[in-house]
Specification:
Length: 372
Amino acid sequence: MTTERLSEYTKFAYWVPNVSGGLVTSTIEQRTSWDYEYNVKLAQIAENSGFEYALSQVRYEASYGAEFQHESTSFSLALLLATQRLKVIAAVHPGLWQPAVLAKFAATADHLSGGRFAVNVVSGWFKDEFTHLGEPWLEHDERYRRSAEFLQVLRKIWTEDDVDFRGDFYRIHDFTLKPKPLNTPARPNPELFQGGNSAAARSNGGKYADWYFSNGKDFEGVIEQLGDIRHHARQANREVNFGLNGFIIARDTEKEAKETLREIIAKANRPAVEGFRSAVQQAGASTSDKQGMWADSTFDDLVQYNDGFRTQLIGTPEQIAERIVAYRRLGVDLILGGFLHFQEEVEYFGKHVLPLVRELEAADNARELLTA
């Protein structure tokens, strides 16, 4: 078990399927839709099933099995207005957004939703989305340097008046945003998420974000990455929460769950997966340590394009609950789940898996009190 602080309980988020093709690049049947009506119902099911967060994806151009996309910030706001408790995280790209403009949008969304809007800063892996729009494609570590400034500017604008920021990418002069977001002691401003895998991503997450999002990882991968991120956070005299991606296949029997996984991979859209693989592994290999996102992902890993199978949340409710709690013991604060048939499976998870997770966590917490 980690020597760092443990969250009282695991939080759960789900990927918003605002992009066509679902969360696996496969021709297997997916009773999931990217349209608004489907996603409103899904969001309502999720918040009534114990999910606290939803993450809206960002794609700007038809690509790799994702032919249609709804824009992330506007879609997130729509879901917020259709729910009561769910927090919705909008993924955004520095370089395609100006941070002060996003800060203004976020403040408005925060007021309209009663303080439930959040931002996931995505430094970018898809070169064409920048170059096809006439924007420069920076080298990997430069993209993360830009994201570091982006995160700092957002925080300053949300919390300070007469903001001045003189960076290499952003220059802000005597800028005051009003109204500011709904700051409270429990949540001083919209939560900021940063994802990645490389040294640059980990540094940003530790120094500037509230949350670090990891691609799918096994136990060993989580231990290595989480230790590094917390090192950066301690150096900056702060803490950061850790979210882990996982594709969840919960079935009544282990055999059924594993057969579903086998079918997903057997029916992979090979040209789309290979195209995605070529694009993202170029990005991962371009880092100085060769450890960027997807740098060592296999073909099977990339059928779920955020390595979700690696987390191994596949089996019976009991098996999945035990593995989630094992991740919590390592220091994971949140599981970001993808599903094959979102509405049905999110509801199944809430009924059959989450109660088991809470029972195991309660037992852990009781043992900790006895040994404290």
